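User: Please fill in residues for this 309-position structure.
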């Protein structure tokens, strides 16, 4: 049984490159739907999708909702503040309550690493992980792979620099799992407080550096990450100082591959991890990532809901 044949999509760590590739192959047909004048097909008509977001989110939440609607599903969105958790109900009880209404899938974001994995053991309703703590953000890495493949014929052998708060980033973790499985060469770059060694041991072709110049040299893909703002004080990194050492600026792009693309999962903080010039640069694909987010989530929803029919 493959990860996508299982009832949930919880993370990419347990997925093989072949399973991910099979999935990526299906995305083209979903992208075509978003390019039509009438962007709606009945693939998930009669299905109900619950979006349960216990953390703030703009793009991931909107993207899942738009994806579900384009496939004809009914959706409801619940945020943490508006839920019974604020009345003292446990997470398991909240999820069991929602599950009793027989939705076809629960899309869930939570600040606790491992929350969706834990809940999936109790629930018959499939769960899609829309980001759990510092652990995984599988749909983000899938849409990132889609985006890279629009600019490169293969993930194998490409050099990707991931720069920033890697240690606390679920986006970095899922991308590292995915890219390493496809034989990409990964350079992880950030200050020591944001660069945990165990991640570097995930695959042989991963190296660590504290120098952004070294990281971007010869890179085909430069993936920037947000400094998790709440940790700004803990890490004792003033905004300007962080930008000086780890902010991506135009001068860095000259060291990269001439066709290198610049990625960022958003939300971007201009002047902190990326300069405005780079964010708006022609080879910045940040908005393409957002666009592909809808496509990747359509493919994931169709796959997961299709199993539960
Ligand atoms: C990321 C997240 O929430 O993990 N954003 C996203 O989903 N596109 C990255 C972040 O918030 O730093």
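Assistant: Residues filled in for all 309 positions:
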């Amino acid at each position: 049984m493959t990860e996508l044949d299982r009832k949930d999509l919880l993370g990419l760590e347990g997925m093989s490159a072949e399973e991910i590739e099979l999935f990526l192959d299906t995305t083209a047909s979903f992208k075509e739907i978003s390019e039509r004048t009438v962007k709606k097909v009945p693939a998930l008509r009669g299905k109900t999708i619950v979006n349960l977001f216990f953390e703030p989110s703009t793009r991931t939440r909107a993207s899942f909702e738009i994806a579900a609607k384009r496939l004809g599903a009914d959706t409801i969105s619940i945020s943490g503040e508006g839920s019974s958790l604020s009345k003292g109900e446990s997470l398991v009880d909240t999820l069991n309550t929602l599950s009793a209404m027989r939705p076809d899938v629960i899309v869930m974001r939570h600040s606790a690493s491992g929350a969706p994995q834990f809940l999936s053991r109790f629930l018959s309703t499939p769960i899609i992980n829309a980001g759990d703590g510092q652990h995984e953000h599988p749909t983000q890495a899938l849409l990132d792979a889609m985006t890279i493949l629009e600019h490169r014929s293969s993930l194998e052998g490409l050099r990707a620099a991931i720069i920033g708060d890697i240690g606390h980033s679920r986006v970095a973790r899922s991308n590292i799992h995915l890219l390493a499985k496809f034989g990409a060469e990964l350079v992880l770059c950030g200050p020591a407080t944001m660069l945990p060694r165990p991640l570097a041991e995930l695959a042989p072709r991963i190296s660590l550096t504290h120098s952004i110049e070294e990281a971007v040299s010869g890179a085909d893909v430069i993936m920037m990450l947000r400094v998790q703002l709440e940790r700004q004080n803990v890490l004792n990194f003033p905004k300007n100082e962080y930008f000086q050492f780890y902010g991506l600026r135009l001068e860095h792009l000259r060291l990269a591959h001439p066709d290198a693309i610049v990625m960022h999962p958003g939300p971007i903080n201009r002047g902190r991890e990326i300069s405005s010039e780079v964010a708006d640069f022609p080879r910045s694909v940040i908005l393409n990532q957002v666009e592909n987010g809808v496509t990747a989530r359509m493919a994931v929803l169709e796959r997961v809901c299709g199993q539960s029919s």
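For context: Residues 151-284 form a domain with the Rossmann fold fold (CATH 3.40.50.1370).
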